[in-house]
Amino acid sequence: MVEQTATIISNRCETGLYFRLVLHAPAIAPDVQPGQFVHIRIPSLKDALLRRPFSVFDTNRETISILYKVVGKGTVALARMREGEDLSLLGPLGHGFTIPTANAEFPLLVAGGYGMAALYLLAKRSSHKGIVFAGARERNDILCEAEFRALGWDVRVATEDGSYGERGLVTQPLRTELERKAEGRKLFACGPTPMLEAVARLAEEFGVAAEVSLDQHLCCGVGACLTCVVPVKTSDGWEYQRACTEGPVFDAGRILWEAGL
Questions:
Q1: Residues 29, 114: one domain?
Q2: 14 plus 79 within the same structural domain
Q3: Domain interval for residue 110
Q4: Which of 39, 82, 94, 216 sits at 20 to 30 Å (Cα–Cα) from 240?
Q5: Cα Rg of the chain, angstroms
Q6: 157 vs 84: CA distance, rounded Å
């Protein structure tokens, strides 16, 4: 974990309320693993005590890219920042995904909304080209489809309003694929908690391994405040673990979903 002053290379609108932020952060970028996040302090929010957490979309040796949606005071302020301005960055943080290797299971990625942002780096570094199931409320909420296809992945889309792809929840085409009962599958998911729980139930039903990135409030990012705890099964019962340090990626089968998140 490193704290660095990162310079904005670009900060542009992708579609609707979604922006892509590219930062020059050579002290952090080389160490980022898929599923990890960074904490950003936005200079104009001087009254804000806490940083804002963002999943890392992509990285190279000197830069990191972040996809975010303008939804509140923090992201409104972030969207107004321009090339050449600086941000205080803390990262990389958290426990990420297991990268599929040549001998690993065939990967099925499941994303809800801008959960796609946390899965792109995993797809980029995976030795297998698998299937991406992208779900959202409407077409404008489907992100990065072209980028995943450019990597050689099969992208299957579902929208709740039927404006693009299959009508309905993303778990519907996922179930269809799992019903093929092909050997050696593994699920990797990021999105809203109800979707992640549904993915976990499907993984259990079909006997498939699954890792999920939980959408918790990562307030401090370093395990000190204990506001992001998750109930996780243990050999003698269960315990709370911190999503910002032991997660945000967990084995879906270890999470005590019935306790509520």
A1: no
A2: yes
A3: 106-215
A4: 39
A5: 18
A6: 36
Tokens of 178: 């799992």
pLDDT reported for residue 224:
87
Work out the widest C-alpha separation in the chain, in whole angstroms.
53
The CA dihedral of 43, 242, 250, 110, to the nearest 10 degrees, is -40
User: Which has the higher per-residue pLDDT, 105 or 64?
Assistant: 64
Are 163 and 210 in the same domain? yes
The model's pLDDT over 213-232, given as tens digits with 9 standing for 90+, comes to 998 778 888 888 888 899 99
Main-chain phi, psi angles of 200, to 5 degrees: -60, -40
Q: Measure CA 169 to chain center.
A: 18
Tokens 């929208």 — which residue?
Answer: 159
State the CB neighbour count (10 A cutoff) for residue 76.
Answer: 14
Give the model's confidence band at 47: pLDDT under 50 very low, under 70 low, under 90 confident, else very high: low
On whether the CB atoms of residues 222 and 244 are closer than 8 A, the answer is yes
Q: What is the pLDDT of residues 138-174, one digit of tens each?
A: 999 999 999 999 999 999 999 999 999 999 999 999 9
pLDDT of residue 173: 97
Residue 130 is part of a domain; what is its CATH number?
3.40.50.80
What tokens were used for 128? 């297998």
Q: Which residues contact 236 (CB under 8 A, 6 or more apart)?
A: none
- 135 and 88, same structural domain? no
pLDDT exceeds cutoff 90 at 109: yes
End-of-domain residue from the set 43, 67, 93: 93
Token pair of 123, please?
């797809």
